[in-house]
Design a protein that fits this description.
Blueprint (H helix, E strand, L loop, with lengths): L1 H21 L12 H19 L1 E6 L10 E4 L5 H9 L3 E6 L8 H7 L3 E3 L5 H16 L3 E4 L17 H9 L3 E6 L15 E7 L9 H19 L1
Parallel strand pairs: 1-7, 2-5, 2-6, 3-4, 3-5
Antiparallel strand pairs: 6-7
Helix pairs in contact: 1-2, 5-6
Length: about 230
């Protein structure tokens, strides 16, 4: 597994540099077109995982994805779901740290995707910016992907759902699409080693809009954790 994982990252680096170079023209045209080369890059990552590391994936519950914009709340165990959710949710964006713009190649394309970037040092100002931009993006038909726990969790680790996403939920007044994953079994946290197996991303039925804070937080945790436990 160690050698396969090293090879994966070696080929990933080459693939990223290659795509970064051949896709340069997309940095100078409308951001509406940037999704195509990014999805091709992600598709390449899927293939490298499959061919080199014997890591495949399955998306369950596609029928639960609505045609309209929605707030997506996903369990977070590895980097895999950040790629997969962007790939399979056609018009979706993330809320991310502004510092990611400084990553070579990746940062330039990330900036072009027109996602919501924040500077966490701004505190309350940053939150106001998020709410304003979230409202604007959903009105344009974008779904917003968030990780309610704020960081990656190991499979079986005690959940820690934060309340920050509730402000967005209330502001945009939309349903929430909960998602369970088992990616941490095969793309573990705090190690570069990839383990062979099938990553499952399970898209669950939407949770209604306009729930009370306590009811929403409890429902999100119960629904996501129950389904996550089933697939791990």
């Amino acid at each position: 597994m160690v050698i396969r994982s090293i090879l994966f990252y070696a080929f990933l680096s080459v693939w990223t540099i290659f795509m970064g170079i051949v896709s340069l023209p997309y940095l100078f045209i409308s951001h509406a077109y940037i999704r195509k080369p990014i999805n091709l890059w992600i598709f390449g990552i899927f293939k490298l995982l499959e061919i080199i590391c014997n890591v495949t994936h399955e998306i369950r519950g596609k029928e639960n994805i609505p045609e309209y914009s929605i707030l997506v709340a996903s369990k977070h165990q590895s980097a895999f779901e950040t790629f997969a959710l962007f790939f399979y949710l056609k018009k979706s964006i993330f809320i991310h740290k502004k510092q990611l713009f400084f990553i070579p190649i990746f940062g330039q394309y990330l900036k072009k995707t027109n996602m919501i970037s924040i500077n966490r040092t701004e505190g309350v100002v940053a939150m106001r910016k998020i709410l304003k931009e979230a409202k604007s993006k959903t009105s344009e038909g974008y779904s917003i992907i968030i990780f309610p726990e704020g960081t990656r969790k190991k499979p079986g680790q005690n959940p820690d759902y934060k309340t920050g996403f509730i402000g967005i939920y209330n502001e945009i007044e939309t349903e929430i699409l909960p998602i369970a994953v088992n990616s941490g079994l095969y793309w573990p946290k705090h190690t570069f080693i990839k383990k062979p197996g099938k990553i499952i991303i399970k898209i669950l039925k939407p949770i209604p809009a306009k729930l009370k804070k306590e009811d929403l937080l409890k429902k999100i945790e119960v629904v996501i954790e129950e389904e996550t436990n089933k697939i791990i």
